[in-house]
Amino acid sequence: MYSGTAKDIRKGLTADCSKCFGLCCTALNILASNDFPINKPAGTPCMNLQSNYSCQIHSKLREEGFKGCTVFDCLGAGQMVSQVTFKGQSWREHPEIREKMFQLFPIMEQIHEMIAYTAEALSYDIPADLSAELQEKLEELQNLTELDAEDLLSLDLVVYRFTLNELLTAASDCIRKKVMGGLPRSKNITEYDYARADWMGRKATGKDLRAVDFRGALLIAADLRNTDLRAVNFIGADLRDADFSGADLSTSMFLTQMQMNSAKGDSTTKMPYYIQRPRHWIN
Known about the structure:
With 283 residues, the protein is an all-alpha fold. Among the domains are: 1-13 and 96-180, no CATH class; 188-278, Pectate Lyase C-like (3 Solenoid), CATH 2.160.20. It has helices at residues 3-11, 67-71, 77-85, 98-122, 128-144, 149-153, 157-180, 257-262. Helix 1 packs antiparallel against helix 4 (98-122). It is globular and about 60 Å long.
């Protein structure tokens, strides 16, 4: 697979709310917190969801306390469930599919996330054998999205995640080692390992953190302004309120739109090609 094709697949995984039946506003459980002012059980429509499946406070979600809504991103899972799995049938007009549709939304969201990571990995300059394994995995995951509702509900996604994680780690290590070779810092890969590290509130302004592994790390409210984060692995990292103003994330790996939406940044933050600058960032 050409890297350009993989990039197109990754970039194409974006939500199109006009083709979804408000699944993120209905299927998910919401607990009152700093991100939401209300409790809403899974399967219950949000009080702000209108009959045309649009949000009546969309332009002022943050002002109304619905910060979490501006962070969430389904990677296109909503329209896939709505338009492909259920062939354009809505849960309002066809109440008999309501429960299954709501159950399937988070499942499809996970599949799309795995597709996103796999396509991104294939866009890198990695060994041919690893590329072949990832391409096989990508095709397998894409085929899952075409399954009917019953088959999707019976999937054991843990199995898919386990095998994919090994391939993604191999791709990340390959890219990171290449970058390490040109750095003045130590070439010992263990000295770049901050996987699952607790960096909550850490001050790291202006540091060169290229090729660091932040898999699953807690970076909540970390000060990463003007930081060089190229070739950094961010898969599964918690970036809530981390400040990336002026930072270089242009070649950071395995970032998601939701991670960036939960963070802070500005007009000078450099981001990967597939990330859209959050509208609530200061320009």
